[in-house]
């Protein structure tokens, strides 16, 4: 059929109108970048910056309009082959360039001149920070904030070289992803020209401007690349620990990956304050929140040093996983974040085995399992349909669940085979982008086990498997009867699911055991053990590496936990077992009384991690399931199990004591001096807090946070004001973090209100202490204060809220009701947020999860409170 002239005209007009309509989420693939050259004039003392950018593009299909990402930019001109474009307004995320005629296929250069805004209350885009009276500019572009700095193709699939030239005040210096190739001073300004980068997506471009100190951290790897710690002026002495270990981490990572460090340098850059991210893996220029990477030697702590080591290992692992090979789209961000988390855990375990961080890794897995138990949980490989989905992708499911699933499959295929697959994947896709199927193919090709279907069963569906295990010794050989289903806590329910689970067990008699692994593919499956005798005990998650919850049936739990469990199970396995029991109590599979009865078995465990997990299990019913009249009984229960050890350890460290004792002390004594009701420990904490407020060197730095928390728990408004006065008088970020943490611990209503007022008035910086908005939820009498304050000051809070790292504080505001446990409170929360959640990036998912959590709490309290009450009658 031949169309009429009228139809042709209508079609042409429709196509023209469509071409002038901004994209919805992703850019059209009609045009793609080949490289960028950007020139920025930046001054930390000004509100705006001047920019120009030349983009080498390839026109793939004939177009008259080119759409780029841009946000908060004013474009003054745009030309292509000397032809000037008409600039089209594309809303918050796009800018269009319409040319007089259709652009021919092939390559060309798009030249754009523009101005942009320097952010003042955020840590995203190009943002201002103050330190000791000096002004600094930093960048944070992940996930979609490079468009604040450049009109560009701001999607991870567009991975091309960048070349930056920065003109800054001569009193400042500038750093970026690459080394400086030329410096030219012109009066009170200096221009720094940086070398062209390797191919990078826009979100990995970075720079900083200010008066910096540069600390030499040695050389790393086979190419001996220079490593530096870059600090704000006057903080060089605080970089000692970071400078001593960073090159070692790089070299160890390079050895695992079998590929030299991909970039020409490795700067670790301290940012005074961050919101929405702690650190960022910019290629060759990793940024960190200052309190993570820097600390005065006099105020440093063991926990802070270990935190930096883990964080640096994560961000430096990204230089290969994420930077060298980049996810093609945000649905596969786990290829960046889960792998960096898994690699961080692996490298720290191998480098510092005495830290016993495998137990911490189990704790991270259990945290992910809690979030993954909700119907509203995300998939690891979640579809990305809106900007909300991009923002929501950076959560415990991506990081912690993803890392746990990787560890499970590494164990299943074998570490050597897995490493071979990782190296093959990185080499094949170096300086390109990749997807999940491409990674799974590389792992499968490295060995004899095809992981595509089994691994994908964890990537492409939400939830965690619950595997019921029973032992049948009436057969010719002992047999396990296994049944899998999706785990749900009380109050949640959804369709049945199955996974292909690489399940590993160990079993035996006494301390002697043997191990076996099997792929569980059916909803019900039998497993015949290769042993003639019936095991006396069986652990169904060997090494605690499996991402599943075990429900032991027919006395298996009792046989596993009786006797010398400390020699039968590793600390990681004991922590994992306690986590499973807690989950089973939440789902109603075991009574809360039976779960609490296990506390005594583990309360005096030789490993501090196990003691902390036992204490966490003991505290689980505290908030809603302990009747008020039985609170004294509950505190006697806690004291019977933990007070002797807490008193023995005491608030005062002893010379030569084991490091595990010093690491257990803060958490154990904090809990026993607050929820445990130990008035002696509480009084001692108050006295020590008074001493610290007068003299910060009077208290062991490892204890400051816990002491201040305990004192605040029992403190009043006057003590709150003392803390704030001290906060305003100190610039030490470690001390400030301790104080801000304590400000959220008050139970006194006047102090809680003072916290709300302090953050709105600016007495406490909003970007540093947004957690104050959520205070008071730990007790029934103050539980509603946060919501009511938010209701009264909503517009003012929205106007002042910070953003950063692709995160908007508004996304978390529904968590003011996270501790609610009754229908009227749920209804009030829902009524307030339901019409608002869609206006806040990422808030809809938060609201849905909070509402589901409330339903779970109601169901849990109804089911388990009688069991808790009966248990506590014995105390």
Description:
With 875 residues, the chain is of the alpha+beta class. It is built from 28 helices and 31 strands. Strand 13 (180-186) and strand 14 (189-194) form a beta hairpin.
Question: Keywords, please?
Answer:
Neutral Protease, domain 2; alpha+beta; Immunoglobulin-like; 39% helix; 875 residues; 8-stranded mixed β-sheet; 5-stranded mixed β-sheet; 28 helices
Q: What's this entry about, in short?
A:
This protein is an alpha+beta fold and 875 residues long. Among the domains are: 1-128 and 136-208, tricorn interacting facor f3 domain (Immunoglobulin-like, Sandwich); 325-459, Neutral Protease, domain 2, CATH 1.10.390.10; 465-566, Immunoglobulin-like (Sandwich). The strands form 9 sheets. It has an 8-stranded mixed sheet, with no helix packed on it. A 5-stranded mixed sheet has the order 16-17-18-20-19. Strands 27-24-23-29 form a 4-stranded mixed sheet.
Give the spatial strand order of the biggest sheet.
5-4-8-2-1-11-14-13
- CATH architectural grouping of the domain at 1-128 and 136-208: Sandwich
CATH topology assignment of the domain at 1-128 and 136-208: Immunoglobulin-like
Q: Uncertain runs with pLDDT below 50, 5 residues or more?
A: 1-17
Q: Shape from CA axes? A: globular
Specify Rg, calculated over alpha carbons: 28 Å
CATH superfamily membership of the domain at 1-128 and 136-208, which one? tricorn interacting facor f3 domain
Mind sketching the topology for me?
Layout: H1 5-19, E1 31-41, E2 48-59, E3 63-69, E4 74-80, E5 83-84, E6 86-90, E7 94-103, E8 106-117, E9 125-131, E10 134-140, E11 162-169, E12 173-176, E13 180-186, E14 189-194, E15 207-210, E16 212-220, E17 225-232, H2 240-257, E18 266-271, E19 279-280, E20 285-289, H3 290-293, H4 302-317, E21 325-327, H5 334-351, H6 358-372, H7 387-392, H8 396-413, H9 415-428, E22 432-434, H10 436-446, H11 452-459, E23 465-472, E24 479-486, E25 501-509, E26 512-520, E27 524-528, E28 537-539, E29 549-552, H12 556-561, H13 565-568, H14 571-587, H15 592-597, H16 599-602, H17 608-619, H18 631-649, H19 659-673, H20 679-694, H21 704-713, H22 717-729, H23 733-743, H24 749-761, H25 785-792, H26 794-800, E30 803-804, E31 807-808, H27 823-833, H28 843-872
Parallel strand pairs: 1-11, 17-18, 18-20, 21-22, 23-29
Antiparallel strand pairs: 1-2, 2-8, 3-7, 4-5, 4-8, 6-7, 9-10, 11-14, 12-15, 13-14, 16-17, 19-20, 23-24, 24-27, 25-26, 25-28, 30-31
Helix pairs in contact: 2-4, 4-5, 5-8, 6-8, 6-14, 8-9, 9-10, 14-17, 17-19, 18-19, 19-20, 19-21, 20-21, 21-23, 22-23, 22-24, 27-28
